[in-house]
Amino acid sequence: MGSLCKDLKECYTTKKLLYWSIWWALATAGFNQVLNYVQVLWDAKAPSHSSQVYNGAVEAIATFLSSVTSLAVGYVKMNWDLTGEMALGIFSALDAGSLLLMHFTSNIWVCYASYLVFKACYMLLITIATFQIAISLSMERYALMFGFNNFVALLIQTIVTVTVVDSKGLGLDIGTQFLIYGSYFAVIASFVSQRATAWSIFQFQIILPAESNLHPILEWP
Hints:
Elements: H1 2-12, H2 15-45, H3 55-73, H4 80-104, H5 108-134, H6 139-165, H7 174-212
Helix pairs in contact: 2-5, 2-6, 2-7, 3-5, 4-5, 4-7
């Protein structure tokens, strides 16, 4: 047990790994929450007993697009150390916008399209996050961090469910729930965008001049 705690402490003392892990846990909790309740939202927008729905087909397309998106990351020639945090901010904002649109629209097709964008963006980002964490750790420590991040995500999801969905909590209707989920991802996007902006300033003011002068590159704090 002592060795396990020591390994966890060493994994999360690196600010880069801690940052990516925070996003992982928060975003995965929100993603799983949306997956659990999106069918309820679709039924509220277009009841299955009174209209023709394509929920199953949309889920299949979303899974396919997510797979393509995840595979595409491996073929994109980008330095994710430099651009990964900006990607987190941009695509987390897209996730937030997609969920808010699902709340405000009454058109089931717009709802479907927003869900496709949401799932594809999340799978893109979780692939980048997994890569960024994996390259910094041994296989054993990566497995430990993977399990712990998902445990934290499950804990956050449980808190959100009890607070937002459960009748003992707020017991909100499904439309308002998605307003909450959209706002949740907007907070995530705001958090990562602030750090990404600071990182960009740091990069252009310190790292690039250092590279041009062949000086050692400073580590981002």
